[in-house]
Design brief:
The protein is an all-alpha fold. The protein has a domain of 137 residues. It is built from 18 helices and two strands. A two-stranded antiparallel ribbon has the order 1-2. The longest helix is centred in the middle third of the chain and has 24 residues. It is globular and about 65 Å long.
Length: 445
């Protein structure tokens, strides 16, 4: 099968093998590459559409301007593709380049497992599910694309048989795309301190990915596409979340200047910056407080950064994103499937400082904390009610799946149901179950 630029989709290379293109269930092919088909499936999936109703940083019920999880994912995909194009050029990889479709697909999928209400919803589910294998957004992403999306079954018939055999295959993506979504190659809670990874229940899927994508390593690794996606996510956090915060009036030059003179705030940001630099280039401990403060304040020194009109904010974001993308470089001398990437030191410090500045000044603000408290209560109450009533209050298609599951799997499925909700769906579901409002009490579930 011939693809763009006359390259054979099925040809082997040091970067992509025939095994990478395999799927849990074989399918017919067409003129598109297998990885382009993965990209299309993600774009058309229900879980991807639902990201439009999930909080990124600010609740979307106040204004249409702020990013949601869908627009964030689209921006991450665009940044990731630009990084891949930049790296292909730097490496002179015209004949065997990093596949842009895998990079974009990984970026589109990276938040697809996040629950309603942003990080507050994730924290609430993580606490509720800790006795039952845990909950974590990245682990849920793997579960969504390999099981929960309603596209492919292993064999025709029931999604889960009476004997408890689970036939669900989710989107049936290629193994290489699945590997590129796996940011944390560890099983959740297998060892103390492992709070990000994949669920024990999905170990068999991870073993198949490892067998097909990392036959030599015989262990799960991070692919070059995953490293690009992760870098693009950090860039998006450090620029677009800043833009939204300025637009919403949560950040101002006065607030930033005051907080960058607060020793507790600066110490917290410095600690996170050092951790990030160590992760990327292994030399974070020599980063000092003045360096972080100077690079952070240099970004906020321009009047256009806080300009009331949209032009200043847009130019600010565009310029910073361009600078950060062009500062990315390959750590290894040659291109290979697990190639690491990094960023020029000054740009890296600025990116990490801005990212963690948002956390300190926005995510921990009283306005967001009040929203998080309410969101956490909604998630907890809905979870408790569904656990108590088992499948009785679930929609018909979820009850059908629940009938074939054992008790631990039923608890996991209730978590799946809640995490798939949008902010509005979760709020309405809560209202239907717990309020006496005549508009919501008889609302269909």
């Amino acid at each position: 099968m011939e693809g763009e630029f006359g390259r054979s989709f099925e040809s082997e290379s040091s970067l992509y093998s025939a095994s990478d293109r395999g799927r849990a269930r074989d399918e017919r092919t067409d003129e598109r590459s297998p990885f382009r088909r993965d990209y299309a499936r993600l774009v058309h999936s229900a879980s991807f559409r639902r990201l439009g109703g999930k909080t990124q940083l600010f609740p979307g019920n106040k204004t249409d301007f702020v990013r949601n999880r869908l627009t964030h994912s689209l921006e991450v995909a665009q940044v990731a593709k630009s990084i891949a194009i930049h790296l292909n050029k730097v490496l002179g990889a015209e004949t065997a380049p990093i596949d842009l479709d895998i990079v974009e697909a990984a970026a589109l999928a990276h938040d697809i497992g996040h629950p309603p209400f942003g990080h507050s919803g994730e924290r609430a589910l993580a606490k509720l599910m800790k006795p039952h294998g845990g909950f974590e957004g990245n682990a849920q992403t793997l579960r969504v694309v390999t099981k929960l999306e309603k596209r492919k079954l292993r064999r025709e018939g029931a999604k889960v048989t009476d004997a408890g055999i689970d036939n669900r295959l989710g989107l049936n993506l290629t193994y290489r795309t699945l590997a590129s979504v796996l940011k944390y190659p560890s099983q959740l809670y297998k060892r103390p301190g492992v709070t990000k990874g994949y669920y024990a229940a999905d170990r068999a899927i991870v073993d198949e990915i490892t067998k097909h994508v990392f036959p030599s390593e015989k262990r799960l690794c991070r692919t070059v596409e995953c490293n690009i996606m992760d870098m693009a996510d950090d860039i998006a956090y450090s620029t677009y979340d800043i833009e939204d915060s300025i637009r919403e009036g949560v950040l101002s030059k006065k607030i930033v200047k005051k907080q960058m003179n607060n020793s507790d705030t600066v110490s917290s940001i410095l600690r996170k910056v050092r951790e990030g630099i160590t992760e990327y280039i292994g030399e974070g401990e020599d980063t000092d407080e003045n360096e972080v403060k100077c690079l952070t304040m240099s970004f906020f020194s321009s009047e256009s950064t806080f300009e009331v009109g949209a032009y200043g904010r847009s130019n600010m974001s565009n310029e910073l994103v361009g600078q950060l993308i062009n500062s990315v470089f390959p750590v290894d001398e040659s291109l290979h499937r697990t190639m690491k990437i990094s960023m020029e030191r000054e740009a890296l410090i600025k990116m990490l400082a801005l990212k963690h500045l948002v956390y300190e000044l926005v995510i921990r603000s009283n306005e967001i904390k009040a929203y998080e408290f309410r969101a956490g209560e909604i998630v907890k109450r809905v979870f408790d009610i569904l656990i108590e009533n088992k499948s009785d209050l679930l929609p018909a298609d979820h009850r059908e799946v629940m009938d074939g599951l054992n008790e631990p799997e039923r608890i996991r499925h209730i978590c799946d149901f809640i995490s798939g909700m949008t902010d509005r769906t979760a709020t309405n579901y809560y209202a239907t179950l717990l309020t006496v409002n005549p508009v919501t009490i008889f609302q269909a579930m």
